[in-house]
Design a protein that fits this description.
This protein has helices at about 1-40, 40-45, 50-80. By secondary structure, the protein is mostly helical. The two termini are about 65 Å apart.
């Protein structure tokens, strides 16, 4: 009985998917493709709308701006040199100690 149950659990989803794919194939061939071809010429179907042209130009502008920003950041990083901070002074002339800054002082 368990073999039959496992076989059904395996075959039923596969059969359902096969039915769905076959019905979708028939729908595409009989209804969708004729309505698409009846809507106009392929050249008309491939034309970009004004909204798509505007959106594409905006995205290209943002791409160029990001590329320029990354170039500027890399140039600044290459030209910048860092000098290690001097050691903190623990005492002054009077023998007093100055407080050292807490590592959590800059955090909010």
């Amino acid at each position: 009985m368990t073999i039959i149950r496992k076989t059904f659990k395996d075959l039923v989803p596969k059969h359902i998917m096969a039915l769905m794919v076959n019905k979708m194939k028939v729908f595409i061939e009989t209804e969708l493709m004729p309505s698409l071809y009846g809507a106009g010429t392929p050249a008309e179907l491939m034309e970009e709308s004004e909204d798509e042209v505007r959106r594409r130009e905006e995205l290209l502008g943002m791409y160029d701006a990001c590329k320029n920003a990354l170039k500027t950041i890399s140039e600044v990083g290459a030209k910048t040199s860092s000098v290690p901070m001097p050691a903190p002074i623990r005492g002054n002339d009077r023998g007093q100690t100055t407080p050292t800054p807490s590592p959590n002082m800059n955090q909010k």
